[in-house]
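#onboarding

Welcome to the new folks! Below is a worked example of what a typical request in this channel looks like: someone posts a single protein sequence, and someone else replies with the predicted structure as tokens. Don't worry about understanding the tokens yet, we'll cover that in week two.

Example request:
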Amino acid sequence: MVKSYLVDEDRKYEHSKTFGLINSSFSNALWAPDDLQNATIRQSGAGKAVVGANEEVLCWDVKKGELLGRWRDKDCTAEVASIAQSDADPDVFAVG
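Example response:
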């Protein structure tokens, strides 16, 4: 990837904060709203992204770019291909 620099009196600037590996190419990405019970603790308002990253499922804060959670089944070595959120209970996700 080519780095873009802004030159100001011999100083170079570049973007310093990125997600890193957001998701693998075979998995879908899913957006979910912020938790209502945790809204008093962290109020970003942008929601969270739940994505598959190789054998793990990562939960990202969309606005802050912070990793909120990492889910992994220790007995499973298959790459995550699909993620779905339950309509009845929004805290439950199906991963396959």
